[in-house]
Design goal:
Number of strands: 12
CATH class of the largest domain: Alpha Beta
Largest sheet: 4 strands, antiparallel
CATH topology of the largest domain: Nucleotidyltransferase, domain 5
Number of helices: 6
CATH architecture of the largest domain: 2-Layer Sandwich
Strand order of the largest sheet: 6-9-10-11
Radius of gyration: 24 Å
Structural class: alpha+beta
């Protein structure tokens, strides 16, 4: 994967975007490419989610250790978190990750982007492409012609990509999510990014205060909390919850024999919702 710089007039303002792309080392074929505004976790995860859905799972991927995956680049907006999150996702899918730095290992991708820096940018300008959505649509036709002209016959026939299992397909949103951990408060709320989330009375498993839960930020912007491989039932609070002195000791998989006080969020925001 590499970065190709390009300025597009997105929403009337010239803005630098980058091309995320992968190349088959055996054939020189561009297997997937996509323009995005940066090369942070979300952009990279979107790229690879599309990749495994469209192309399949490669046995191994080579990454330049001097790229956004290892060190800072101005378009790697969340570089400090990227490699760990990315490695976790690849490990779950059984995709090997190798970081290389030698000229021999980088030669093909460097030559590819040297060609694209010249040829693709000219093609985009000739086609009067001015937005990232137009550029990504244009890429489909361009890459087909590019691969037909520049790809080579591999030394051995065959495709080493593996198709996703049904279970993997159903778990992709979780696999390609940004993960962190948080602790459950005494009032069964979870604070995350300046918001408070209230756990509901009925949960798929038994939950206690002070337990740590896994937070998943999905690429669609939704937040999910899980514990022991179960997603927890919760809703976001409009403000910081007021202190409630009486609280249940646990939450479990059936309604509690406990009546919440009038100011409890369950009464205000759950029971009142019908």
């Amino acid at each position: 994967m590499h970065i190709l710089k390009l300025y597009l007039t997105e929403l009337g303002n010239p803005q630098e975007v980058c091309l995320l792309a992968s190349i088959d080392d055996a054939t020189g074929k561009i297997t997937h490419a996509k323009f995005d505004f940066n090369e942070g976790v979300i952009a990279v995860f979107n790229f690879w989610m599309e990749y495994v859905l469209i192309v399949g799972k490669p046995l191994c991927i080579y990454l330049d250790k001097f790229s956004t995956y290892k060190v800072n680049h101005k378009m790697a907006v969340d570089n400090s978190e990227l490699m760990t999150q990315f490695q976790q996702a690849m490990k779950i899918l059984g995709i090997g990750v190798i970081n290389v730095s030698s000229p021999q290992a980088k030669g093909r991708i460097e030559r590819l982007f040297g060609t694209l820096q010249d040829r693709l940018i000219k093609e985009l300008r000739l086609a009067n492409i001015s937005s990232i959505s137009q550029a990504n649509f244009f890429l489909k036709e361009f890459l087909s012609k590019f691969n037909n002209r520049f790809s080579v016959t591999p030394a051995q026939d065959g495709d080493v990509h593996r198709q996703l299992s049904q279970r993997e397909k159903g778990s992709l949103k979780s696999i390609f999510s940004i993960k962190s951990t948080r602790r459950i408060n005494h009032d069964f709320t979870i604070q995350f990014k300046n918001h408070f989330y209230q756990l509901e009375e009925v949960q798929p498993i038994t939950i206690r205060p002070k337990e740590r839960v896994l937070v998943e930020e999905h690429l669609d912007g939704t937040i999910h909390f899980s514990s022991k491989n179960h997603y927890l039932n919760c809703f976001i609070l409009p403000e910081k919850p007021k202190r409630v002195f009486r609280q249940p000791a646990i939450l479990t998989n059936h309604p509690l024999n406990w009546k919440p006080p009038p100011n409890h969020p369950w009464r205000k925001f759950k029971y009142g919702r019908g």
